[in-house]
Amino acid sequence: MAKSPEEEHPKKAIGWAARDSSGVLSPFKFSRRHEIVGVVTEVGSKVQKFKVGDKVGVGCMVGSCGSCDNCSHNLENYCPKYVLTYGGKYHDGTITYGGYSDFMVTGEGFVIHIPDNIPLDGAAPLLCAGITTYSPLRHYGLDKPGLHVGVVGLGGLGHVAVKFAKAFGVRVTVISTSPNKKEEAIKSLKADAFLVSREQDQLKAAMGTMDGIIDTVSAVHPLLPLIGLLKCDGKLVMVGLPEKPFELPITPLVLGRKIIAGSCIGGIEETQEMIDFAAKHNITVDNDLRQSWKHGKACLPPRNSLPCFRGTQGEHNKLETWRHNSCFGDCNIVNCELGL
C-alpha cells in the first residue's frame, strides 16, 4: 500500500499562476499552487500507467465524477463535480490543499507522464498555462499551418500560446498594450508581427486578417477592436478570467459570422497529448525560478507589465510541492516525491 500523505519526504517544488496568489476561486483556507511535478516513489497494487522513478505531474484537477457525459468524452475539466487541486473538496468532504508540501498521493487517472527531455521547472507551468492555450488552438481548428492567429497578452499564458502556435506552423501576431514587449515577442518567441492595441492605425491595417485570436488577458478590455481583426468565420477565444463582465458587441458578430468562445484547461488525455507535443518541439514555459519561502514568508513574483511570464518556486535547486491530506486505498494511487 502506498504511504500516507503524512509520511515525510524532502521538500521540492511547484509552479504558480497569477490567480494562485488571490485564492478567489476557493471558499476554504488552503495552501495554494496547482502546477506540480515530481518523481514516482511508490505505486498502488493495481497501478498500470506508472512505475517508480517516472517523472510525473499533476495540473489543475485531481478528481471528477467519472460517469457524466463530459467525463465519458475525456473532458474531465468540464465535469460538474471536478475537484480542484487546491481549494477544492473531494466527494468525501476532504479539502485539497494545493502545492506547498513535501509530496502527494493521488489517483493515477489524474497524473501526467513528463517526458525525460523536459526539465521539471519548465514543465510544471505547462500543466496549466500550457494546456490552457494548447486546447483552444486544437479544439477550434487554429492549429493548421498557414492560418493567422492573434495572441492577446504576452504573460504566462500568452507567451506559451505563441510557442504552441508557431510549432503548429501558424502565423502569429502578438497583440499587447505594452510596446516594450515587442522585442521579446519578435526576437525571442519568433512571433511574425506585433500590434500595440492602443495604436488605432496598427489595428486598422490588420482588420479582417486573422483566422482566430486567443485572448489571454484577465482584465476587462474592449472586444470590438479584436472582433474587427477577425476574418469572416473568425473565432475569438477567451481563456482569461476577468472579474467583471464585458460589453459584448453583437452586430459585428452577426455581420461577419464570427464567434466568441471560451476554453478552460483540458482533459487528462489532451493534457498528456500537450506534454508529448511540447517534448517533441522542445517547448517549455519561460519561468522565474525562485527560492521557496523562509520563516513563513513566501517569495512572490512582481506585478508589472514586464514579460517575466511564469513563476516556479524552489529551494536552492529543488522544486517545492504540495501535500494532499487524503488517501485513496491501494488500488490505483501513485505516491510521488515531487521535484527534481
CATH architecture of the largest domain, by name, is 3-Layer(aba) Sandwich
Helix coverage percent of residues? 10-25%
Do you know the CATH topology of the largest domain?
A: Rossmann fold
The structural class is alpha/beta
Query: How large is the share of residues in beta strands?
Result: 25-35%
The CATH fourth-level homologous superfamily of the largest domain: NAD(P)-binding Rossmann-like Domain
How does the overall form come out from the CA principal axes? Answer: globular
User: What is the H-and-E element order?
Assistant: EEEEHEEEEEHHEHEHEHEHEHEHEEEE
Based on DSSP secondary structure assignment, what is the total number of beta strands?
Answer: 19
Protein name: Putative mannitol dehydrogenase
Cofactor: Zn(2+)
Family: Belongs to the zinc-containing alcohol dehydrogenase family.
Pfam family, one: ADH_zinc_N
Any chance you could write out the topology, listing elements then pairs?
Layout: E1 14-16, E2 35-43, E3 55-58, E4 61-63, H1 69-72, E5 83-84, E6 86-89, E7 95-97, E8 103-107, E9 112-113, H2 120-123, H3 129-139, E10 148-152, H4 156-167, E11 171-176, H5 182-188, E12 193-196, H6 200-205, E13 210-215, H7 224-229, E14 230-238, H8 251-256, E15 259-262, H9 268-280, E16 287-291, E17 310-315, E18 318-319, E19 333-337
Parallel strand pairs: 10-11, 10-13, 11-12, 13-14, 14-15, 16-17
Antiparallel strand pairs: 1-2, 1-17, 2-3, 2-19, 3-9, 4-5, 6-7, 8-19, 17-18
Helix pairs in contact: 3-4, 3-9
